[in-house]
Fold:
Amino acid sequence: MLGPMPVDPDSVSAVSDGLRAAGYLPGSSTALVSYLATKLGKPILVEGPAGVGKTELAKALSRYLDRKLVRLQCYEGLDEAKALYEWNYRKQLLRIQAEAEGTGWQAVQDDIFGEEFLLARPLMSAIAAEEPVVLLIDEIDKTDQEFEAMLLELLSDFQISIPELGVIEARTQPVVLLTSNNTRELTEALKRRCLYLWLDYPELEHELEIVRMHTPELGEEISRKLVQVIHQVRELDLKKPPSIAESIDWARSLILLGADDIDQQTFRDTMSIIVKHRTDLDIVAERVGVKLGDPVAADGAQRPA
Ligand SMILES: Nc1ncnc2c1ncn2[C@@H]1O[C@H](COP(=O)(O)OP(=O)(O)O)[C@@H](O)[C@H]1O
Ligand SMILES: [Mg+2]
Structure:
């Protein structure tokens, strides 16, 4: 029996529409780069501040392309055993113990280094999958350069060599997304292999559309005010400006609290949802509170009538 037809986009606008239908509102370069990546078979390196939709893009692509998502979350000290494969020692040991006396070591060894004793980790799973997947290598900047080098090999040849077993070739080619929060400069070699997508905080209207998509219950008017305030806050010199993630959290909170406007009081009560550093809170309380134009001054003192 034939399975479902794989989704193979034939234009940038098809990708744009597909991502929207999958719950992601792409900017124009996002749709363009995603389209090229599926056509050229090249990985996308997505860089940008936290909370601007890098991880979500991979998830949305997997929904749109109707491919399974295989995710490798990077962290400091991540090694090949956790990313590629490792030998299943426990099973190997059991196998050795179960071996009848007198079997030659060579025979046992040939056996226990077979594919059956291999534990596939995300990178291997992604290229060994029967159906092509979307592979998300999330926050690659958290690993070190050795790891990047190993990855390069995989991304250019789509194969993995295992000393005891030989070369494992890719069965299917994944759509690959690497994300980086830009905490360190990635190597030129890696960048050269990838298409590059810089995601930044969106324009006001674009962000409003995103917020409205996630929280349609929040009124049009108050949603617009929310996004305007967020944009004001981003202009301040903060340690951590609020991202789209914070805008959405804020919108959800306002719904729960039954707010129908963002006045001074509401803002004060809820601003810790969008700003999360002590010093940032002080700056925002002082600078944005005033602009909301409430009769109560920023320092809390009543203005003379
Ligand atoms: N273009 C977009 N369309 C829809 N939702 C978005 C978009 N960009 C970001 N989001 C939402 O913002 C939140 C943060 O996105 P995420 O992908 O986790 O950020 P990052 O990986 O860049 O830190 C998620 O809830 C995501 O759904
Ligand atoms: Mg992320």
